[in-house]
Amino acid sequence: NVPGIYAVTVRAANTEGTATATLRLAIHPAAVGVTSAQGVFRVGQRFGITVHYNTAVTVVGTPKLTLAIGPAGAPNFKDATYASGSGTNELVFEYAVAHGDEDSDGVQLLPSAPNGGTVCDASGLSASPTLPVRYFSSGIVIAADGGPGLGSGGSTEPATAGAEGRRRNGSARMRVVEGDSNRALITGFVV
Fold first, then answer.
1. How far is residue 39's CA from residue 106's CA, in Å, rounded to a whole number?
2. Which residue of 25, 62, 103, 130 shows the fewest CB atoms closer than 10 Å?
3. Helix (H, G, I), strand (E, B) or coil at 165
4. Is the pTM of this model over 0.90?
């Protein structure tokens, strides 16, 4: 399933004869994983979320990812803006923590693909409209204004962590998705 446009010849035969047709099959690029920084962030600090694709993709415009920041019952939806990665299979999106942001149980990424720009492969096929996550909880905690966070006060550099400090389609909070009596869909895992 390598993304691209392929010519496929289909042949059918019956008692009346044989016919062939050539079809164009388009396999679109798709996101295959998501990783994020991990830690406690405060106003002015930035954190990154990386979307991994199954092929190199090109970015046109400024796509954004939708984040749910705040309590699960009443989150505020904010945008993480494309920062880098065009021409590779990893796109980095960043969000700068603003006054009033607070999330003690983990910023969540909505499963919709980047919007507001175009993400496509070398043949011009647009990337799939969804991400491979359901209720992705990042391990990113946002401290209330003035609360303790990573690094020195007010840094605008993206916080970084070693490989052990990154999450890959995982959740620090393991809660069962509503309506899943078999407990098969745990939040933060690829479905």
1. 9
2. 25
3. helix
4. no
